[in-house]
Design goal:
Arc Repressor Mutant, subunit A, 4 domains, about 625 residues, Elongation Factor Tu (Ef-tu), domain 3, 21 helices, alpha+beta, six-stranded antiparallel beta sheet
């Protein structure tokens, strides 16, 4: 093959780009990963952390599909916590504090050692098309590189401007240039772009913080890895550290307000919408004016780093105001600032322009993934990168496309939301966005998804076979628990000690397990029934026992969710041709016709999720499709 010709070109080595390149290469495609800095692969632009509420679910799903984010996080995590443990299992979310430098180094190591990936260090300035098909790129070094597909994952860099106070400089991230040419190239052929903004807090010198005054937040005593493939005997790989908690107060707010007239947000210098759910401190002071304090988490940037990240204090106010306010915060009286916070404003492409495979509707073979689709967050970007990489590879190999349903994965919810609702503000994932969240738990990601990774060759077959075997154990374990009975004389003492009501004669383990205060492992360990080999091997299979317990405890809810999914399935399966000319359907409402034309839904279910589409529009579509 010509040196300058590849199956796939990936533009940008951020969280989306490395997943796309890694998946496509392991599926057998030759990949050129063209990125501005080959040592900045997977660089964390903002907080040194992976996962968190709903984002942790995404990482577990990426991992079950054979992506690399979970493995990198496990190798470089310096504090692991399972969030929301006091709530139901649907919202438990793993999160880790990462060593920022090691995270990127591990990403570089993995990508550099992946067969089929050539890393090209350059800036892409133009895209090449032939007959509405992407055929390659131009770089700032004057090179043309050709390919059968192009994945654009250039993040927050396109025409990016960084703001601190009234000073604005071009750049996609501190110390890194912005990228020019791509937006213009795409707009020329009919794409629409818009502006968004995001921000980051100041970084503090660790040695100048008085941690003795602050509340310590350690990690979990028994930390759990993200990746299904991490060897537990080598986990955690690094020493674990604590974060610390402090807060702002009314005096701090007063100082920050002094800077509002020099704020790029309030003076209109920044035009793009910021992340609603990750607001800057100045935004919080205005939007939640009744609150006189906001919690801040001081997070270490790494084991050997002297930098501390102030989670909750993202700001683009002038540096001197940031400094003055910080010094009034408990524990930060003597603080030294390494770098002030800043905001970055960048171009994105509203995502109604991509299809559910993340291929653009306008140009064949061109995929958008990550922040360029209007999302915010490493995990959202990685999930899209993986899906774009898989789909680009499948298309080149003439294989059927891969689209996850909303009932199969958070990744399905994410992409479906993007393509049916588009977005005019940075989109981040929440558990509340997933209507079937009890089925889409972080703990069962492998049960839901590993079969796909096996099909695409993205996981070792033996892992997938282990999951299949476990599934058989789970199903037979559930049946066993329905049959095994405990007698009152063997159970009551234990039930009393667990604060559970006693039984009169006998009760099945399945029924007892439904009681919220009881754990299946404890019930299985009680005396009073025959400990056959099957029971013994079940007791020793911790992962299976955990799944059986959740399946039994939430059986009723899970059944109802499944019934709902089955009911909706008919509409998911009723496909609408992408070529349908909606202007011929005169009976559609005007808004309905405009929206259908804009979003080009793939199915009746997807059409029904577009805002402004009425039940009557759906009936008209159904009648048309039937005829
Ligand atoms: C200052 C700042 C603050 C942020 N704050 C938050 C936050 O609070 N919460 C949150 O969830 N997310 C935040 N983010 C966003 C987070 O960084 C992104 O969601 C995530 O990194 C997106 O991943 P990505 O792969 O799409 O792009 P990125 O991680 O941005 O990676 C893009 C890559 O593309 C490369 N590239 C760009 N243009 C070109 C080109 N023309 N040619 C070659 N290579 C190119 C870049 O060098 C980079 O490697 C912030 C980002 C920044 C910059």
């Amino acid at each position: 093959m010509d040196k300058k010709s590849f199956d796939i070109i990936v533009i940008g080595g951020g969280h989306a780009g490395i997943e796309a390149a890694s998946a496509a290469a392991r599926m057998g495609c030759s990949v050129a990963l063209v990125t501005m800095d080959k040592n900045a692969l997977g660089r964390m632009s903002c907080n040194p952390a992976i996962g968190g509420t709903a984002k942790g679910h995404l990482v577990r799903e990426i991992d079950a599909l054979g992506g690399i984010m979970g493995q990198i996080a496990d190798k470089t995590g310096i504090q692991f916590r399972m969030l929301n443990k006091s709530k139901g299992p649907a919202v438990w979310s793993p999160r880790c504090q990462s060593d920022r430098k090691l995270y990127s180094e591990e990403a570089v190591r993995i990508i550099a050692s992946t067969k089929n990936i050539s890393i090209v260090e350059s800036s892409v300035t133009d895209l090449l098309f032939e007959n509405s098909t992407a055929v390659g790129i131009k770089t700032a070094d004057g090179d043309d590189i050709f390919s059968k597909a192009v994945i654009l994952s250039s993040g927050t860099f396109m025409n990016a401007i960084m703001h601190t106070g009234l000073s604005a400089t071009t750049g996609g991230r501190f110390g890194e240039k912005s990228s020019t040419g791509i937006t213009e190239s795409l707009e020329k052929i009919g794409f629409t772009s818009a502006r968004l903004k995001t921000g980051t807090p100041p970084r503090l010198m660790k040695s100048s913080v008085n941690f003795n005054l602050l509340e310590e937040q350690p990690g979990d005593e028994n930390p759990q890895p993200f990746s299904h493939f991490t060897n537990l005997s080598k986990f955690p790989a690094l020493p674990q550290v604590s974060c610390h908690i402090t807060s702002t107060d009314s005096e701090v707010h007063k100082i920050l307000k002094k800077g509002f007239e020099l704020s790029p947000m309030f003076t209109g210098l920044i035009k793009g919408a910021g992340p609603r759910y990750c607001p800057s401190i100045e935004d919080k002071i205005v939007r939640f004016a009744d609150k006189d304090k906001h919690q801040l988490f001081l997070e270490p940037e790494g084991l050997s780093s002297d930098e501390v990240y102030v989670n909750g204090f993202s700001t683009s106010l002038p540096a001197e105001i940031q400094m003055e306010a910080l010094k009034k915060i408990k524990g930060l009286e003597e603080v030294e600032m390494i770098r002030p916070g800043y905001a970055v404003e960048y171009d994105f492409f509203p995502p109604h322009q991509v299809d559910s495979t993340l291929e653009t509707k306008l140009v064949k073979g061109l995929y958008f993934a990550g922040q360029v689709n209007g999302t915010s967050g490493y995990e959202e970007a990685a999930a899209q990168g993986l899906m774009a990489g898989i789909n680009a590879a499948l298309k080149i190999q003439n294989k059927p496309e891969f689209v996850l349903k909303r009932s199969e994965a958070y990744i399905g919810v994410l992409i479906d939301d993007l393509v049916t609702k588009s977005t005019d503000e940075p989109y981040r994932m929440f558990t509340s966005r997933a209507e079937h969240r009890l089925l889409l738990r972080q703990d069962n990601a492998d049960r839901r998804l590993i079969r796909f990774a096996k099909e695409f060759g993205l996981v070792d077959k033996s892992f997938a076979e282990d999951v299949d075997k476990r599934e058989i154990t789970i199903q037979s374990g559930i049946n066993l628990c329905r049959k095994l009975k405990l007698h009152a004389r063997d159970a009551n003492e234990f039930l009393k000690s667990a604060g559970s009501s006693e039984i009169e004669s006998t009760e099945t383990i399945a029924n007892l397990c439904r009681r919220p205060e009881l754990k299946l492992a404890d019930l299985l360990n009680l005396n009073g029934y025959d400990k056959t080999d099957t029971v013994r091997s079940l007791i020793n299979n911790e992962k299976a026992v955990q799944q059986i317990e959740i399946d039994l405890k939430y059986e009723g809810y899970l059944k109802r969710q499944q019934e709902m999914i089955d009911k909706l399935e008919r509409y998911e399966e009723t496909k609408i041709p992408l070529t349908l000319n909606y202007s011929t359907l005169k009976a559609l409402s005007t808004e309905g016709r405009e929206k259908l034309e804009r979003y080009k839904p793939r199915s009746i279910a997807q059409a029904s999720r577009i805002s402004g589409i009425t039940p009557s529009d759906i009936s008209i579509l159904l009648v048309y499709l039937k005829s």
